[in-house]
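Per reviewer request, we include the raw input and output of the structure prediction for the construct analysed in the revised manuscript.
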Amino acid sequence: MPRGRPSTTTTTTTTPLKRPLSPPAKSNLTPPSRQSKRLKSSPIPTTSKSATTKTTPKKSQFFKHDSTRGSESESEIEAEASGYEDEDVSASEVSSPPASESEEEEDEYVSSEEDQKKPRKRTKVALKKTGTANGVVAKTAKAIVEKGKELWRPGVKTDLAPGEEVFIRLPKAREDGGVKYQEGVIHPNTMLFLGDLAKNNEREWLKMHDADYRQSKKDFDSFVEKMTEKLVEIDETIPELPPKDLTFRIYRDIRFSSDPTPYKTHFSAAWSRTGRKGPYAAYYLQIKPSGSFLGGGLWCPEAAPLSLMRRAIDRRSENLKAVLLEPGMRKEFLGGIGKGEEGKAVKAFIGQNQENALKTKPKGYDADNPNLPLLRLRNYTLGRKLKDEDVIGPKAPEKIAGLMRALMPSLI
C-alpha cells in the first residue's frame, strides 16, 4: 500500500423499511378550482361542512338489515369520495324548492292575476227605473225616491249581492221652466231652491244638489251687483264693491246653538262704508220664500259705537225723531202713521228694537232722563218684510231701490 493519505473505511448503514402510513383522509370540501360554476354564480352562500357531508350510518351488529336494499351504487361511492357532486347536489337542493311547492306558488300567482283581470260585477240603477237590474230587487230603485230612504243617505240598505255596486247620477240643475235667467234679476228657481233647502237642511242633500245651489248663488250674486249700482247712486257713502265682499255665507255657526241644522235657509247681503263688515250702519237685504226682508241701521254694535250713539241721542234726540217723521219712513217702515205723530213714531221704532233692550237705565244716565226708552236700546234699526213678488222679476230692483232711498236718512 502506497504511503500517503490514510484510507478510511466507509461503512454503509441500511435503514430497515418501515410500514408506510395510511394516506391522509380526503377532505369532503371541494377545492375552489373544482367548485361548480352554478354554485359560484348562485347568491346562496356556500353551506358548511356539516350541512353538505353525507353521513352513512354504521350497521348495527344487533339488527339485521334488509338484504333487498343492496349496497350503495358505484356513483354514490365516487360522489362521497370526491365531494364535488355532493356539494353541487346540496346547493341545488337549497337553492331550488321542491317541485310541488313551486308549482303551488305558481298556481297561486296565476290565480291572483286572473282575479285582478276579472272585471268586478257592477250594477247600475237608474233614478227612474223601478224594475230589477242584475238581481237587484225593485225596492232598491224605489228607495231612491222615498223620503228619508235615498241611497245617498248613510246607512240605507240596498239589498245588493257581494260585489255589486249602485251608481247614482247626480241631479242636474233645475230647468228654467220657460223663464230665462237675466242679469240682475232673481229667478223663481232661486226661491224654489231655498224652499227645498229648508225642508232638507242636511249636508248630504246639499252635496247631491250642488248644481242647484251654485246656480242659485250665481243668480243672487248677479242681483246684488245690480243693487250695488243703484245704491251707489242713492247713497254716496257706499263704495262699489264686488259681491264676495257684500254677501254672507250660507253656513251657520252652530257651536253655541241648540239648532243643529248646518245651513241658512236664505241668501243675504249688506252694504256699508266697508262692505258687509265694519262698525258703520248698513243696508241689509235677505231673500227667502215668504220671508224676505229689507232693513238698515246699527245692528248689535260694539261698546264704543253704541256709547257714541247713546250720547248723540241724549244730546240731540230731535235729530232721530225728525228722521222717524220722514214721509217715506212713516209710510214704508213705521206702519203709515200720520204726519206730526212723533210719539207714535218713537214708540214704533222702539218696538222694532225691543228684543235685546236693557231692563234698566244704562250706566252714566239718570233714571228720569226723558230719552231713557231710546237709551235702553242696543239696536237702532228699521226694517220691513217683503213679498215674493217684490223680490222676483224684472221690477224688483227698482222696488227695492225705492225702499233703500226712503231708509237712507236713518243711516247717515
